[in-house]
Amino acid sequence: MVDDPEWSGILEARLGEAVSFVVNTYGSELAEVISVTVDRWDGKEAAERIELHVGRDLQFIRINGTVVGALAGLVIHAVGQTLS
Fold first, then answer.
1. Residue 42: phi, psi to the nearest 5?
2. What is the Cα–Cα distance from 52 to 59, expressed in whole angstroms?
3. Across the chain, which distance is largest between two alpha carbons, in Å?
4. Over the stretch 4-57, which tens digit does the pLDDT of each residue have?
5. Residue 74 to residue 2: CA distance in whole angstroms
6. d(CA 8, CA 30)
7. Are 1 and 7 in contact (CB under 8 A)?
8. At 55, phi and psi to the nearest 5?
9. C-alpha 54: how far from its chain's center?
10. Which of 1, 25, 52, 71 has a Cα at 20 to 30 A from 31?
11. What b/e readout covers 50-76, taking b as 16+ CB neighbours within 10 angstroms?
């Protein structure tokens, strides 16, 4: 099936239809279950579990966010200085 584009297209279309049906039929119930579950989480415990599972990648995300934020701030500052 993976090598046959016709079968892949058919499978993708059917899966899309199935997902659409589930979302349209049960979307509000699923959203409610997710909301209730997240509301019951302890913030500190959830953060610890996420860090445990994501681990090292989370540090790279933090570092990249810091670097990108700093560069964006420098650009904004430079543009502000240039225009004034």
1. -85, 125
2. 12
3. 62
4. 889 889 999 999 999 999 999 999 999 999 899 888 888 888 888 888 888 778
5. 48
6. 28
7. yes
8. 55, -120
9. 13
10. 52
11. eeeeeeeeeeeeeeeeeeeeeeeeeee
Calpha distance 70→63 (Å, rounded):
11
Do the beta carbons of residue 8 and residue 1 sit within 8 Å?
Answer: yes
Question: How far, in Å, CA of 44 to CA of 67, rounded?
Answer: 26
What pLDDT, in 10s, does the model give residues 50-65?
A: 888 887 787 888 899 9
* Structure-block tokens of residue 36: 């209730």
